[in-house]
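Before any further analysis, backbone shapes were mapped to integers, which produced the following:

***
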Amino acid sequence: MGFTRRQFIRTAGLATLGAAVTNDLSWASGSFRTSHNDTLKVGLIGCGGRGTGAAEEALNADPNVVLSAMADAFSDRLEQSHATLKAKLKEKVQVSNDHKFVGLDAYQKLIDSDVDVVLLAAPPAFRPLHLEAAVNAGKHIFCEKPFAVDAPGLRRVMAAAKEAETKRLSLVSGFCWRYHLPKRETFKRVLNGQIGEILTAEATYNTGELWYKDRQQGWTDMEYKLRNWLYYNWLSGDHIVEQAIHSLDMLQWAMGDVMPVRVTGTGGRQKRVDKKYGNVYDHFATCYEYPNGAKAYFFCRQQSDTAPSYGVEFVGTEGKCLVDCRTGVHEIKGRTPWKYEDETKFTEADAYQRSEARSMYQQEHDELFASIRAGKPLNDGEWMTRSNLVALAGRMAGYTGQVITLEEALASEEVLFPENLSWDTRYDIPVAVPGITRFK
């Protein structure tokens, strides 16, 4: 029997968890629909490269939008982001010094300011807390992926997303491919049955290694780890959750967002074994089984000087579909062949830099702000959290070497992110070993 929508919501315990998000609607006062004469104030939480990019796209999404507040754990990142945005967007950047919030509590100070829309782009472990606070305050939200690094965090996100729907707040996710027009056209055809029933699928996200910041004098252990958050699963979720989730989301999209029944997997550290790489793996291999018996084989790695691969392929009863994010191929072969002809070749990494290929990043903000103006809120909550769960379950299977059902994954009580985090916190989780690390 499949993992149905009702089971998904029931297992998450939304009725109970929703109590963590306030139900006070007094802030609303009919303000959902605004005219283009009304200035929308945007606040950015997390001023790294992705956050800076999201702010730029938000400011370009509507003629009457300004950036009025910024928040980050580190002042240097905030100031660098501010300078970048100010140079590009000039008068649209109106962040006074008293609206530059720095520290681990900076997010709340920004949310308590007079912003209308918040962009959540801090490291993923902070996302449940930041999303709850934004929903409590009645803010419209752009929420970068992923949304949680563990199941308890994801259940909080699910509750907050449900409450955002109740409050008629727009919540748009950072799954940029869902806003990529060629992929929308391709997956629409798959979902309409152009390749028949999907029998098997393959998804990959194989890439090189990413940035690393050397420890500087005066940094505490926690500052060092926060500045290198990619390499700690309690901050990033590991790369299957933080980066490769894009491919898993495309897999889920084509499968109609039906939840897999179970996942088997493995993974480990072959090349990135230095202590500076924290406790994350450098490769995962998983197999997801869906209710109709279809199997999806997924592989991801972050290893330099290895062959890249980034895309999805589906084999159905009437043909097959190939989507290659590196080459821009979107093609269906079989009984009813089709090919998207007008795509520019690009990788996700350089898509942000190339104006002709930035449509998916800009599109998600265009649709977010259009929904706010029209008073017709978008809410990506259900499908975005499903894709996050699929990634979490894959990591759990990889870490433990066990077969993990999706219901077990969602009900997991393992909390990776420590409570009461401070600059003096010293915190480590050992590297997982399949067959030794236990599912919790």
